[in-house]
Structure formats: structure tokens, C-alpha cells
Design a protein that fits this description.
Layout: H1 11-23, H2 25-37, H3 43-56, H4 59-83, H5 89-109, H6 111-124, H7 150-173, H8 176-186, H9 191-194, H10 199-207, H11 215-234, H12 244-253, H13 256-259, H14 261-272, H15 278-290, H16 300-311, H17 313-317, H18 321-331
């Protein structure tokens, strides 16, 4: 057992880290106590350890810990599916729907279970549980907003806010258009004797690529799909295929890619779509050049700034050095002119 370090680009690593922290909660506090009492360390390290202990031994921290474990557990399979090299878009799209359903179910009916789990954890580790009906001590300008109870803060400001943010991210990244595109792609899935085949959706799939299919191709595709489905469903070589990638290989092996060239083009477009999301791929590719072994302690903010500069280097190349130096000179007084 160890406290796993989360990675910057893998949400599943954050999930494992939180599970480890929940399991090793007492040992982590013990280590922080040792650091806090170690007079050989600098004052900043001891103060940081003391602040972490105070933060961890609160009901709100435990609530957030269990909440994030539940949320990341729901999206863990989806996250891993999207990160696989041989990712299956059909299964990934199904996991998106499952994640949304589970998050909505958790939002509607999951508060009581989360509160009970958090309370039991606090009792086990001798952490004070506040009276949820009592008023929350507000600070600063928030005092002007009136009285807010602990229940409202935990349930609305934390529980609902986290789940709504996660749902919004899923809806933004898998919008109606992209979801419809992926659903059309799923009709190519050869699983279970091409059970998902839908001629109309595949024609709609082709309509997303007007530069690859002209008007004649659209007419020919409709008739070619009718012949294709009868052919492959009656061919034993196409019965036990598991995914679109297997379908593409088998079509080439049996020379079907020549006979059904328009359908094979759809298959190729379906297979290349995951790597066509260039913005994500560029970020992952740039990561290995920026965060090297010499920079493994780089913070998230500094890493993000470096990545933006590297990924968008075409934009930065268009800015002359003189204007950059002038801008930095204006930020604050300096001993010398840049």
C-alpha cells in the first residue's frame, strides 16, 4: 500500500490516489504530524504540514474526498476507454451515456448515502461532525448574503455543484452533433451479426463529409449498403468480428474494400475520427517534451503556460521579441531595462 501520485493527464490516476488517501487516512496524518514536529525542517514545510492536518480533519474535507471518489468512479471506465490506443468509439459512446445516467441518478438520490458514508468515516477517525441545521460561519463579504446552513453549503454549494460541473463537461465535450456522429458510426459495428446496422444513419454519417462524398456517391452509397449488409450477414467470415477495426481488416482480407469502396471509406473515416481530434493529441504529444525528468516537479500553472507556448508556437512566432520585452517591463518596476 502506498499513497499514489496523481498524473496531470490521467484522471484514472486521480481516482486511484483518492482511494489510496481514503484507505491510508490515519497513516497520512501520522506522517504529517512527524513533519510538523520535526524541528530540523524549515518553518514553511512544518507550517504546510500543520495546515494540511487542520484541513484533513474537517467534515468538509472528508465529504469532498468521498464525493470525488464517487464521481471519478462513475467516469473511470469512460476515461480509460478514451485513453486506450485501440479505443472503441462504440463502447466509449455507450459509456458516455452510462456516466450521464449515473451522475443524474447520484444527483437525485445520492446525497443521503454520501452523508451517511462521510459521517461514519468521521466517527471512525474522531473527526467532529457539525450540526447540519446550524448556521455556517461566513467570512468577509459573504456575511451580507444572509444566513447559510451547513446543509445548504454541503448539499448545494458542494454536492450539486460538483455533479453539475461534471455533467456540463460531458455535455460540452459530447455535444448533440458529436453524439449523433458517434451514434451514426456505431451502425458500422459488426458485433452480433451487424445488429446495429442502420442504412439511414450511415447515409447521414456520410453527409458529415461532403468533401469525400459527392452527390453521385450519396446515391450509390444507399444502394451499396443494401447489397453490403446481405453479403456480410451471409458470410461466415464476418460473423465473429468484435469491432470496426476487425471489420476493416476482414474487408481487406476478402477484397471487400474494392467491391464496397464507399462503405470502406466510411469505415476508414470511423477509424480515423478518434485521432482527428488534433487539439487533444497535440497537448499529449507536447507533454513529453515539456514535462521531462528535469521538470518533473513543475507545477500545474507553470506547466500549462509552457504547454500553451509550445502548442501555439505559430502564434507566438508572429509576435516580435521587442513587444514581449516591453510588456514584461510594464508589469512591475525592475532594476534594469530588459
Amino acid at each position: 500500500m502506498s499513497l499514489l501520485r496523481p498524473g496531470d493527464t490521467r484522471w484514472s490516476s486521480h481516482y486511484r490516489s483518492l482511494v489510496s488517501l481514503c484507505t491510508l487516512f490515519d497513516p497520512v496524518l501520522d506522517v504529517l504530524e512527524i513533519v510538523k514536529d520535526d524541528t530540523t525542517l524549515v518553518h514553511a514545510k512544518r507550517s504546510e504540514a500543520s495546515a494540511l492536518i487542520m484541513r484533513m480533519e474537517t467534515f468538509e474535507f472528508v465529504l469532498l474526498l468521498h464525493l470525488m471518489i464517487k464521481v471519478l468512479a462513475i467516469t473511470n471506465e469512460l476515461s480509460q476507454a478514451l485513453q486506450r490506443k485501440d479505443q472503441d468509439i462504440v463502447n466509449a459512446m455507450s459509456l458516455v451515456k452510462v456516466s450521464k445516467v449515473l451522475l443524474l441518478k447520484m444527483r437525485d438520490n445520492g446525497w443521503d448515502n454520501l452523508f451517511q458514508m462521510t459521517s461514519e468515516f468521521c466517527i471512525k477517525h474522531d473527526i467532529d461532525i457539525p450540526d447540519i441545521e446550524s448556521a455556517l460561519a461566513l467570512q468577509g463579504r459573504t456575511k451580507r448574503r444572509g444566513t447559510v446552513t451547513h446543509l445548504h453549503h454541503f448539499k448545494v454549494d458542494i454536492f450539486y455543484a460538483v455533479i453539475d460541473t461534471q455533467l456540463q463537461e460531458l455535455n460540452d465535450r459530447f455535444s448533440e452533433v458529436s453524439s449523433n456522429l458517434l451514434e451514426c458510426m456505431s451502425c458500422l459495428n459488426p458485433y452480433n451479426s451487424f445488429l446495429a446496422f442502420d442504412k439511414n444513419k450511415l447515409c447521414e454519417f456520410a453527409s458529415y463529409y461532403p468533401s469525400d462524398f459527392d452527390l453521385n456517391d450519396f446515391v450509390m452509397l444507399e444502394y451499396q449498403l443494401e447489397t453490403y449488409i446481405v453479403d456480410v450477414q451471409s458470410d461466415h467470415d464476418f460473423l465473429n468480428l468484435k469491432g470496426i477495426a476487425d471489420l476493416a481488416k476482414r474487408m481487406v482480407e476478402k477484397k471487400k474494400h474494392i467491391v464496397y469502396h464507399l462503405i470502406y471509406l466510411l469505415v476508414k473515416l470511423a477509424l480515423t475520427l478518434p485521432v482527428a481530434t488534433v487539439s487533444v493529441e497535440r497537448a499529449f504529444s507536447a507533454m513529453k517534451y515539456i514535462k521531462t525528468t528535469l521538470h518533473n516537479r513543475m507545477g500545474d500553472e507553470w506547466l500549462n503556460d509552457c504547454l500553451v507556448s509550445y502548442i501555439e508556437k505559430d502564434v507566438f512566432d508572429s509576435i516580435d521579441n521587442e513587444s514581449i520585452m516591453i510588456e514584461f517591463q510594464k508589469l512591475r518596476p525592475r532594476r534594469m531595462i530588459l
